[in-house]
Amino acid sequence: MSCQPVSPEGTQLQRRLETETRRERENLNLLKEVQDTDPILERDYQRSREWLAGLRGEYNALGEALKPKAIRMKWERSYIPKGSTNRPVIITANTPIINSKANSIYNMITPNSLVANEPMVVFGKMTSFQISVRHDMAKNLTDTLWANEKFILAINLQFKFEKLPSNLDNIFIAESRIPKGSIAQIKSSEAKLLKEIKQIQVLTKNGNTMFFTPEPAGKKITDGVLNGWVIELKSMDGGRNRIGHSYSDALKKLDPLGRKPNLVFLNILNPSLTENDAIAQFRSVLNRHKDYDGYIMARFINNGETHLWNTKDLR
């Protein structure tokens, strides 16, 4: 695959992160000298370390996401000329990039290639920078897979029969997915898209970015791109075994390059089903299909909780 020049926005984001990292290193070095003199300064020192670890994670994630665009990340530019400790920064449980199980990002060139220690999906509140990074990763991957498709903001979407929910930030819809055709076709398409929008809002409301990509007729194509992952969405309201069937069905969907989704997100609507039920079903499927990898996410209607697993942890 030939490299394309990186966009000005990608370069600006890279430089902004390098500048922010240099400033934080300066702050960390100053706090290191005085941390033993005051409990408040000790606390600020620890917070600075954690924040710097988060910045480094975001920088590495950006570099991986923009790699196909021929950008060359220069981590040394994020170091101040003098006074740096050059010691590794430890990521703690309080690091701003949260959810330790979501610790890899999708490589847009090599199928199913994961880069360790880079969180992708964030369940909690994100900084504006974290939101910006994930938006750019989603857009870069979407542009790679669907170069000729146009997308609109979901907030500009208009339905004829269904009522759209509020808070549609960070959701984009392929123009080819806008419901059209006969009245029956429009009603069916609106209902399907509305169900998927409501499902993904649990993530987009926090700043994660979702692109609902085209669904060509007659093809089993994945639903979209979440941050830097290809994603397939499923809702199921049957019994325990339906969890496994829905997961297997989701992995039959492929992106335009013929790759399985990196993330399957199940919306489990049966209130009697629990996290343990889901884990048992996922493990049963994975034991039969050694080629299945990536991540699984499930939201449970019985308690409103959303869980994320790496398939490697379920084998």
Question: What's a quick, concise take on this entry?
Answer:
Helices cover 39% and strands 14% of the residues. It has 7 helices and 10 strands. The two termini are 34 Å apart.
Q: What portion of the residues fall into strands of 2 or more residues? A: 5-15%
Query: Shape from CA axes?
Result: globular
Predict the CATH topology of the largest domain. Answer: Trna Endonuclease, Chain: A, domain 1
Q: Can you count the beta strands?
A: 10
Percent range of helical residues:
25-40%
Contiguous uncertain segments of 5+ residues: 69-73, 78-118
Main beta-sheet strand count, sense and barrel state: 8 strands, mixed
Radius of gyration: 21 Å
Distance between the termini: 34 Å
Helical region count?
7
Helix/sheet category: alpha/beta
Strand line-up in the sheet with most strands: 3-4-5-6-7-8-9-10
What does this molecule look like?
This protein has 315 residues and is an alpha/beta fold. The chain folds into 2 domains: 8-78; 106-314, Trna Endonuclease, Chain: A, domain 1. Helices cover 39% and strands 14% of the residues. The chain has helices at residues 8-34, 39-66, 128-145, 183-204, 240-250, 275-288, 311-314; strands at residues 104-106, 114-116, 151-153, 171-174, 210-212, 224-226, 229-236, 263-268, 295-300, 306-310. A hairpin with a 5-residue loop joins strand 9 (295-300) and strand 10 (306-310). Helix 2 runs parallel beside helix 3 (128-145). It is globular. The model is unreliable at 69-73 and 78-118 (pLDDT under 50).
